[in-house]
Design brief:
alpha/beta; nine-stranded mixed β-sheet; 13 helices; 17% strand; globular
Length: 389
């Protein structure tokens, strides 16, 4: 079943805080929900579908539907890490097309900064019920070193350099300087990135995303409801999702699940990568961006380093404006899951509501892509293509 044009994103809200020691996780979920409803011009009682992932407290939708005092007839707790919220957009559109709900609320919230989480460098907890743990945990895998393996392989196979990767952070910082809520607003240079401390060779500190509290929410609605609201209409054109594992030991670190989710989304939307005017690309690390740009078809495999160099991701300057809010590298990476913010900034661009300094002129087609899990081990990928109607 195609969802092309069968649902719209009518509300989007990003929490302004980057540190919330005085707020509970449930409170953050509630605040972003209210923000998205206000943005859409809808009320709590209009919601009849609710979507959340593993960041939600308690028993996910059971706890949050009760906390928010919602009356819903459809829920979804799909959890694929940072790609969850793009999958939720897809699943909400599918549910609306099937008549399961008419107004879907998607929320994300987290407090890793207040809780002092060493997200990228601390070994993950070894739960023996997870099938891969008994093989991987003895080596103390961390997020950073799993991504560093991908960098090393990409450098070896394609000649990618640290200088090329640094341009991704440089581009993000050029955009973040215009975002009053961004955690890091200082414009950096390639030299700054390379001079920052090494975290997991060859990833430097400035190759890594920020750690923030906060959250975001989206409202996805039936076309009839979207047309009744006084907001620019953002149509969902195409979606794709995929899971990449290790293929029983046939490991290939040079590509991501975007190689599968991207073509599926483009096929459903009926467009090509060259038609995209703005891209929100998941940026847990600089290598995440580079590999996804290749896998989504914006350049040939192995050519990502050359593609991102010399400012080609900077709005108003380069070939592919990306993450004009500063992204996870500079702005916000709430709950260690940045997929929600990718959709929110794509919506802003299509509505013409991004900061004037980074707004893409006459932006009509945008892509948002999320990765969840570990690029070097197993991860979920989700691609959403949006159009301003």
């Amino acid at each position: 079943m195609s969802i092309n044009g069968k649902a719209y994103i009518v509300g989007a809200y990003e929490h302004p805080t980057r540190k919330a020691p005085d707020k509970s996780l449930a409170q953050l979920h509630a605040e972003v929900a209210l923000g998205a409803l206000a943005d859409a011009g809808l009320g709590k009682d209009d919601i009849d579908g609710y979507f959340c992932a593993g960041d939600a407290p308690g028993m996910g939708p059971l706890s949050m539907v009760d906390y928010l005092n919602l009356r819903v007839r459809h829920v979804d707790a799909t959890d694929t890490g940072g790609s969850s919220y793009l999958i939720h957009v897809a699943h909400a559109a599918e549910a609306i097309a099937l008549g399961k709900c008419r107004v879907a609320l998607i929320t994300l919230a987290g407090r890793p900064r207040s809780e002092g989480m060493a997200t990228g460098t601390a070994p993950r907890a070894g739960n023996p019920n997870i099938p891969e743990i008994q093989f991987e945990y003895p080596y103390a895998p961390t997020v950073a070193n799993m991504y560093a393996m991908c960098v090393m392989r990409h450098m070896y196979q394609f000649g990618t350099t640290s200088e090329q990767l640094a341009w991704i952070k440089v581009a993000a910082s050029h955009h973040a300087q215009h975002n009053p809520h961004a955690l890091l607003r200082k414009v950096v240079t390639v030299a700054d990135v390379l001079a920052s401390p090494m975290i997991a060779d060859p990833l430097h500190r400035l190759d890594c995303c920020v750690i923030t509290d906060g959250g975001g929410a989206l409202i996805v609605a039936h076309p009839e409801i979207a047309k009744s609201l006084q907001r620019p209409r953002v149509k969902i054109l195409g979606v794709g999702e995929a899971v990449k594992g290790q293929f029983g030991g046939e490991v290939d670190l040079t590509f991501s699940g975007a190689a599968w989710s991207g073509p599926r989304a483009f096929a459903e939307a009926g467009i090509k990568p060259g038609d995209i005017q703005y891209a929100s690309i998941y940026d847990s690390f600089t290598i995440t961006v580079l590999m996804q740009i290749e896998d989504l078809g914006f350049c040939e495999k192995g050519m990502g380093g050359r593609f991102v160099a010399d400012g080609n991701l900077i709005s108003g300057v380069g070939k592919l404006p990306f993450n004009t809010d500063g992204g996870g590298l500079c702005n916000n990476h709430p709950a260690n899951r940045g997929g929600m913010t990718k959709v929110i900034e794509a919506v802003r661009q299509l509505r013409g509501e991004a900061h004037p300094a980074v707004q893409v002129k006459n932006c009509a087609l945008a892509l948002a892509h999320g990765t969840g899990g570990s690029l070097g081990l197993r991860h979920g990928s989700a691609t959403v293509i949006l159009e301003r109607e």
